[in-house]
Amino acid sequence: MKIVLTISLVLAAALTNYALADNETCSQQGILTAKDCPGDGLEREELRLYEMVNQYRLQNGLYPLSLSPSLTRVANRHARDLAENIGYLTPSWSDCRYNDNDPSTWNCMWQAPQRLNTAYTTPGHEIAAVNGYKIFAITALQQWQQNSAYNAVILNQYQWIMPWQAMGVGIYQRYAVLWLGRTPDPQAATQLPLLGSAQALDINNQFVETSTTFNGGVAIGTGAFENRVAVNRADTLAAEGIIAVDPKHVGEKADIVVYVRVKLPEVGDAKLYMLTAEGKPQPWDNEVTHLLPFQQNVTLKPIQSLKLYTGQLDLSAIVQVYFGYRLSPNTKQMLLVVNNQPIDLQIK
């Protein structure tokens, strides 16, 4: 069994490689028509804004949103359009007018992903911010938090109660733009099923409250990820997971852990196995302190993306996959945080 685990931000799986055009092609009205422009992907400050918005949602009991390459492209194009063609903050684009009081203009915003020929085919919604000569992620988020209407959009309040499923961000010069959509982006590399809340155990195996949540699943070949899968031993599998880390744990040192519960045919009790740093399964006695780390001494980020497994499983069994993190002993307490709902595999 070959196990591959890498820790990265969720955006690493979601972003595509853009063949960037030159700045001249993407200036003025070219912003609205060019196939690719510099900045269509995610840059450092945009990544920071993406993480901060998701962390703010977590603090308010909401799930983090997947990064949308399509909506990130739209957000970046509108930020450039505002800076280069319009010169002030507005939901309008330089090629169409938007007015809150005129429903006939609303498609100017909603259909921007389609006008820019992205893979996102359903309406999106935008909020934006402006600040002096240059804007930073923290400034944009603070403006939105202090604006009750924009804050409601981010937190799915009032008329925005239907949950968002995709987010795109763009920052250019003094403009920051956030795009949200109610359907997943088909261009996103990975859409992982929701596994829900965590179970957190202290060193005495006592339950501890946490807001950490999990997504994860298994895909057969190039198929979609599912959290309950029946597979054949000859199938090539990929297993991935996402941890939306409790804000109280962000920045703490922790060990990433992976373990499985395996039930073989005609065998009584299921057995627990932990995966070592070399990707080798070893028996585990269910003691938190005895669980070997798969990745040691990681600084926890708000969103951790895991590639758990790739290859075939040459056994017939029922397998349940758990993953998460264990806060290091030098933190306030030893704490094991893993998915409460496992990824379930039935291998024939």
UniProtKB/TrEMBL annotation:
Native organism: Thioploca ingrica
Keywords, alphabetical: Signal
Database matches in Gene3D superfamilies: CAP
Presence of the UniProt keyword rRNA processing in the record: no
The keyword Signal is assigned to this record: yes
Domain annotation SCP: ranges: 51-170
UniProt protein name: SCP domain-containing protein
Signal peptide: 1-21
